[in-house]
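Take a minute with the sequence and fold tokens given here and flag any structure token that looks odd. Thanks in advance.
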Amino acid sequence: MNHNKSLLPYAFLRVAIGWLFLHEGINKLLTEGWTSKMYLAKSTGPLKGIFEWLTEDPTWMNITDYTLSILLVAVGATLMIGLVERISAITGIVLLILFYLAYPPLGDSINSHAEGNYLLIDKNLIIALALYVSMRANSAKEYGMQRLLIRK
């Protein structure tokens, strides 16, 4: 097997980001009583109204929490093994943009002490951009289960 070695760093990036998603999803699924309710209820971003509306109905909150947890696990697992890379990456990017929009880093001080929440650029946006770069490289075609599905 002759692999395109220039894709290896992108594969490492894809797997690392996948681990972040998988870990977050499993943690949420295994933490008894976990809910995103307070996170959504205190949103400061442009989707604040939608997020607050979700928190008002317990059924919608349960659906939101379960869907988020399952999506995090699914995106993480598929990124790590290199399967349906584009779909997983796009789903991950959408989730990260929603997290970004929930609390956009528009702080009134450049010396903000909130971890990961800086002026205009935060860790959600950086991870989304890294995921986009990884997706564009399409490393799963060489280093992932996707390779087994591609007929040469």
Q: What stands out?
A: The chain has one domain: 5-149. Helices lie at 8-30, 37-41, 48-56, 58-81, 85-102, 123-137, 146-149. The longest helix spans residues 58-81.
